[in-house]
Specification:
Elements lengths: L2 H15 L11 H15 L10 H8 L2 E3 L9 H16 L5 E6 L6 H21 L7 E7 L10 H7 L1 E6 L1
Parallel strand pairs: 2-3
Antiparallel strand pairs: 1-4, 2-4
């Protein structure tokens, strides 16, 4: 019950301490312990889910981040999710992931493929800045071809503008 807010608090504390993060920055040991502790508390609540699996990523950390309309910059909430993913990926150094970039149905196929690529690379670059080896991360854009939610309304569009982390 309290693990998710604690994890978010730890990630926010990490990000506020690193507000001018550059490519050589990584998560400190103290930050990693704070996020890991909050994740361990939450993992006890997720019965039957094995750490190091896609199911664990989906249920305990979050496998996706969302973007604004026609944007590929990361929101504060997205950065929090990615900070937790970075710690998890560093703890599971044998895992490789693919970041999928998606767009909503508006715009041409070509435009949305390019936007999905920018979104996926935005996620990858942030994970790399947090210390995840770039060779462990692939990117792919699906543009508007694989919507998560069917519909032509603001709610559906918001859910379809996303970056999703998939374990290979």
């Amino acid at each position: 019950m309290f693990a998710r807010p604690l994890m978010i608090f730890a990630a926010v504390a990490l990000l506020s301490a690193c507000s001018t993060m550059d490519e050589s920055s990584s998560i400190t040991t103290a930050d990693r312990e704070a996020i890991t502790t909050s994740m361990d508390g939450e993992s006890a609540m997720v019965a039957g889910v094995t750490p190091g699996t896609q199911d664990y990523l989906n249920t305990s950390i979050g496998d996706r981040v969302f973007f604004g309309y026609d944007r590929y910059d990361l929101t504060t909430e997205a950065r929090d999710t990615l900070a937790a993913q970075a710690v998890w990926l560093q703890e599971h150094g044998d895992l490789y992931v693919t970041i999928e970039g998606h767009a909503d149905e508006r715009g041409t196929r070509e435009y949305n493929l390019a936007l999905g690529d920018r979104r996926a690379n935005s996620v990858k670059n942030y994970l790399v800045a947090l210390g995840v080896e770039p060779s462990r991360i692939n990117v792919i854009s699906y543009g508007k071809e694989r919507p998560a939610v069917a519909g032509s309304n603001a709610e559906a569009w918001a859910q379809n503008r996303r970056g999703v982390t998939i374990i290979e």
